[in-house]
Amino acid sequence: MNEKIVLITGATDGIGKYAAMALAKMGYHIILHGRNREKILATASTIQNSVPGCNIDWVEADFESLPAIKKMSQELHEKYDRIDVLVNNVGAQFHELRFADEGVEVGFAVNHIAPFLLTSSIIDLLLKSECRRIINVSSEMHRNMQYFHFDYIYGKEAYSLYDYYSNTKLANLLFSYKLSRVLEGKGFTVLAITPGLTDTHLNPQRTPELVQRAVPVELGAVSMIEAVTSPSLQGKNAIFLDKDAQVEPTSSASYDIEQQDKLWDMTEKLLGMKFTVL
Ligand SMILES: NC(=O)c1ccc[n+]([C@@H]2O[C@H](COP(=O)([O-])OP(=O)(O)OC[C@H]3O[C@@H](n4cnc5c(N)ncnc54)[C@H](OP(=O)(O)O)[C@@H]3O)[C@@H](O)[C@H]2O)c1
Question: Pfam families, per this entry (predicted)?
Answer without folding.
Answer: adh_short
